[in-house]
Amino acid sequence: MNPVTFHAPQAHAEALRLAARDGAAYIAGGTNLIDLMKEGVMRPASLVDINSLPLDTIAPTEQGGLLLGATARNADTAYHPLVRSGYPLLSAAILAGASPQIRNMASDGGNLLQRTRCHYFYDIAVPCNKRVPGSGCSAIGGLTRQHAILGASEHCIATHPSDMCVALAALGAVVHASSEQGERRIDFTDFHRLPGANPERDNTLLPGELITAIELPPAGQFAAHSAYLKLRDRASYAFALVSVAAALDIGPDGTVRAARVALGGVAHKPWRVPAAEDALLGKQPASAAFEACAELLLAGARGHGQNDFKIPMARRAVVRALGQAAAGTIDNMHAAPASAGKEPL
Ligand SMILES: Cc1cc2nc3c(=O)[nH]c(=O)nc-3n(C[C@H](O)[C@H](O)[C@H](O)COP(=O)(O)OP(=O)(O)OC[C@H]3O[C@@H](n4cnc5c(N)ncnc54)[C@H](O)[C@@H]3O)c2cc1C
Ligand code: SF4
Where is the FAD-binding PCMH-type domain (predicted)? Predict the structure, then answer.
């Protein structure tokens, strides 16, 4: 690992000033960044530790939503009583990821910024446009089991690996960001980007910009009917081949009043298609409507040989997740400790 200067600022303005320097990177839980530094994939000149900043609270907003501080831990978020009651979809998605130890360390802001799990991105001996722009893409024509079927480009076919982000996309979250130039809010659907000709850029955050919080809008309408379905190679401790965050608002007449569906593991960002969600409106929550929704979500999907299976798998997963959501929110938090807080190791 290259030598690196470590800063632990106590004040927000100091953190922004230090991060504005060339080669600086923020560090929160370090569960992704330290691995990348060990492999030589990322070589920051300095680290700005944000764990002393007061960014770890989870609190209701005046609008009836919830603000998740950037350094709130994934475990604390998943087990927070207001998240469990109002946003069970988010709890389920977080708990479907990683391991208890990692969720205890991983921060909410860091989860959004975790890098792809493409094998070639981690192997500095081979070309990768995301790691070294213009060097080529080793995945195209190579091992593609994990790779994208939607929104890819000739420069990169990587996927975004987060589970939490799939639920945040479905829930319509907003990212709060801060820099020496000021504060701004970024709609979750605009936060991550498709690779296009610049796969080195995962998201629309500017250099030195700090995520301070993630805002969840009021979402009581979806609390009773949501599901996170994650399909992967092992039952635990594996990234999604395909995942689905599904949320329905079902009216008194039994038809769908509002719907949200996001796919994970299939693109460079959580994948939402408004027309696919609109196709469910006014319909009985049953197979015919779910299948029509899945067709629209997967429109234009293209495999790369080894990952062709993801297309039919994603279609079936959408239908299954919507069925689970319609039946009622699944409590897949059976491993939860009795009170909010750190998970047992
Ligand atoms: C073995 C293993 C298995 C995993 N499995 C899963 C899984 O199944 N599903 C899943 O979703 N995730 C999984 N993860 C990923 C894990 O969730 C992420 O590593 C974690 O969320 C990153 O958070 P962190 O706080 O540790 O980030 P760090 O490693 O500290 O930082 C990650 C990146 O974010 C930047 N950063 C951090 N905080 C901020 C901020 N507030 N503002 C601006 N920049 C910031 C850093 O500069 C760095 O570039 C796994 C990780 C490991 C190691
Ligand atoms: S898919 Fe993207 S991350 Fe993977 S080798 Fe190609 S350019 Fe790199």
Answer: 1-221
For the whole model, what pTM was predicted?
0.96
pLDDT tens column, 293-331? 999 999 999 999 999 999 999 999 999 999 999 999 765
State the CATH number of the domain containing residue 34. 3.30.43.10
* 139 Cβ inside 6 Å of ligand 2: yes
Closest CA to 191 of 262, 121, 120, 132: 262
Confidence at residue 334, expressed as pLDDT on a 0 to 100 scale: 38
C-beta of 148 in contact with ligand 2 (< 6 A): no
Say if residues 227 and 329 touch (Cβ distance below 8 Å).
Answer: yes
The answer to the question of residue 142 being in a domain is no
Q: How many domains does the chain fold into? A: 2
Considering every ligand atom shown, identify the ligand nearest to the alpha carbon of residue 161 and give its number: 1
d(CA 302, ligand 1 centre) in Å: 28
Find the ligand nearest to 121 CA: 2
Rounded to whole angstroms, the Cα distance separating 275 from 278 reads: 5
Tens of pLDDT, residues 218-237: 988 999 999 999 999 998 88
What's 261's domain CATH number? 3.30.390.50
Q: Give a yes or no: residue 289 inside a domain.
A: yes
Residue 58 lies in a domain: no
Give the position, in ligand 1's atom list, of the atom nearest the Cα of 93: 11
User: How are strands ordered across the β-sheet holding 66-69?
Assistant: 58-60, 66-69, 210-216, 174-179, 182-187
Whether the CB of 118 sits within 6 Å of ligand 2:
yes
Asked if residue 203 has its Cβ within 6 Å of ligand 2, the reply is no
Q: Does residue 84 fall inside a structural domain? A: no
Domain that holds residue 285: 223-327
